[in-house]
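Journal club side-thread
Mid-discussion, someone asked how the predicted structure for our own chain would compare to the paper's figures. Pasting it here so we can look after the session.
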Amino acid sequence: MNTSIYDANHDTRLGDIADIRSGHPFRGSIEPDVNGDVHVVQVRNTKATGEIIQDEVITTTLISKKQPDWLKTGDILFVAKGAKHYSALVEDLPKQTVCSPHFFLVRIKPAYKELVTPEFICWQLNQLPAQRYFQTTAEGSLYLSVRRQILEYVPITILPIDKQRQITAMHRCAVKEQKVLQQLIENRQQQLDAIAHKALTA
């Protein structure tokens, strides 16, 4: 274990503390199968807030002979291809779940599990310093992508574990508040639409 990590935060890279691998190698489009026994997380099932929308995850049947790299609670899914490059945290997904090739699967190395929380790393990858790094290193014209080596070299700051948990708890609260506010906005708009319909079509 690298116990000097706190002494050299500026030299810490994601690849130092985590293993990074590609998503499941689907060939072509991912065909949904209601009778399938494998769940697939796709980019459209994730949010830049770090969430995975479990209700929208489809099931399919794997054709590839490659042994699936099943997702585990605490894994981080990094959107490597597309207009936005952000991370989402895996929490309590079904046992047989894989992610699409548009992701890199980031898994904290055993030696660092007591030094960092996956939720904190996921949160940090979605913050401005890391986002600027991805914006300046992404390749392509219309369809941007972040290579594995680029992700491995993104700078990571390691804070004391209690501080990490404090920050991620605040983040969770902020996400909940955003959802409540959004619901209030939608409810108010529905009220205004009903008032307008009644007043203007009478």
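Post-session note: Residues 1-9 have pLDDT under 50 and may be disordered.
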